């Protein structure tokens, strides 16, 4: 390996950081979380990227998806399987497998699986922090494909209350309408 040019404007390699290889089907060390009926797997955390971004594998069952919200960080997702109905600043569209959506920071949005099949998204948030919110409100599950457990009405109410209380700490605002 060649020695870096001392006149380079690119910082030296940060040897305290390592290569991350996420294997969501087999890696027992990944965090899998049930959130509002969906299953999210944290593939790459902000801790692994120096806070620059996080990457999350999202499995959205029929009828699933988060409620209307907004946050002060960029969110991008690629639809790997299926399609989602997306409402962005009050306008509704459909994003299908093979398509990528970027949601600018602070913009109100919501997405829902309106089909009869599961949807799989690959979500990137920059800077990181969204994964910490999910870890604070989610319920651990065994694998990337483990369905979220059914929740009673009391459990749903407690989840909504906890999410609303914690959202501001994670730079997120839960909305009544997108």
Automatic annotation (TrEMBL):
The organism's place on the tree of life at top rank: Bacteria
InterPro entries the record matches: Cupin_2, QDO-like, RmlC-like_jellyroll, RmlC_Cupin_sf
Gene3D superfamilies hit by this protein: Jelly Rolls
Cleavable signal peptide: none
Cupin type-2 domain sequence ranges: 58-125
Pfam families from the UniProt entry: Cupin_2 (PF07883)
Alphabetical list of SUPFAM superfamilies matching this protein: RmlC-like cupins (SSF51182)
Name recorded for this polypeptide: Conserved protein, contains double-stranded beta-helix domain
Organism: Deinococcus marmoris
